[in-house]
Amino acid sequence: MGMSVTIHAATAQDAEQILKLQYLCYQSEAELYGDYSIEPLTQTLEALGAELADGYALVARLGDEVVASVRGTVDAGGTARIGKLIVHPRMQRHGLGGRLLDAIEAHFVAEPAAKRFQLFTGHRSEHNLRLYRSHGYVQISARQASPALTVVTLEKEAEAGAYATSA
Fold this sequence. Notes:
By secondary structure, the protein is an alpha+beta fold. The chain contains six helices and seven strands, in the order βααααβββαβαββ. It has helices at residues 15-25, 27-33, 39-42, 45-54, 96-110, 126-134; strands spanning 5-9, 56-62, 65-74, 79-87, 116-122, 138-146, 149-157. It has a seven-stranded mixed β-sheet, sandwiched between helices.
């Protein structure tokens, strides 16, 4: 009998596994844009620990292994900023990213009552853009970050009743 993937709130003890997974997952983004100095590849364990302490994060586990993660924060205006949605390459294309996105949205609708969700990705990151659009996100801006990268920001409004059974 195979194991199933379970989603849980991340803890400080997950930081090292999340950082290793983040490093693995962002290699393809770095290659896509020709920039290996991107923040997810240079983030320290201490900085990740602070990010986990200041926000909310989820991990998906297959047994004891963290195979996916997402994190975010909600600002005073009610905007939940979701970031670093990562899925182990061997686990991609099976709906896990969408499950994590739904779960973190459900958390932020319940507490601290987000009014909208916002996230960003690079303009060449077609798989990311397709996932976000399939979950109702629409582009609200695009900013040239470097000659090779345009950062696309996407957003959607939170609908309080829509997430009651998602988590």
